[in-house]
Amino acid sequence: MAPQNKIKVENINHPGTARQVDRAMYDAMRQAYLKVLPGELPGLTLAQISERLAGELPQELFPGGAKAGWWAKTVQLDLEAKGLVRREKVNPIRLYRV
Predict the structure, then answer these.
(1) Are 79 and 95 in contact (CB under 8 A)?
(2) Residues 11 and 17: beta-carbon distance below 8 Å
(3) pLDDT tens digits along 53-96
């Protein structure tokens, strides 16, 4: 069982594996990610998501956007693995909530 300050995350690119990350950081990014991501096509590109996330993240956890890129990718891959976010098969990729 994971300690209360950790959460297990999955990665759509590595099915069946999980790793533990900081729960507060994950929860903050997850909440922001789901808030900015539209629920319909065409979705948003990763660059558009990154721009929108900047205004949604708590400064006490992400001062000046520090480490937001790593956390955004971690949350993206976890949400895709859990089926909450889908990737449109275009270039550049576009994501949307399910």
Answers:
(1) no
(2) yes
(3) 999 999 999 999 999 999 999 999 999 999 999 999 899 999 99
- Indicate the helix (H) or strand (E) that contains 6: strand 6-10
The string over 7-27, giving b where at least 16 C-beta atoms fall within 10 Å of a residue's C-beta and e elsewhere, is bebbbeeeeeeeeebeeebbe
CB 53 within 8 A of CB 72: yes
Residue in the block written with tokens 């998501």: 49
Contacts of 74 (CB under 8 A, 6+ apart): 9, 21, 26, 29
Domain boundaries, the chain: 6-97
pLDDT tens digits for range 40-50:
999 999 999 99
Residue 48, CA atoms < 13 Å, CB-side half-sphere: 12
Predicted structure pTM score: 0.92
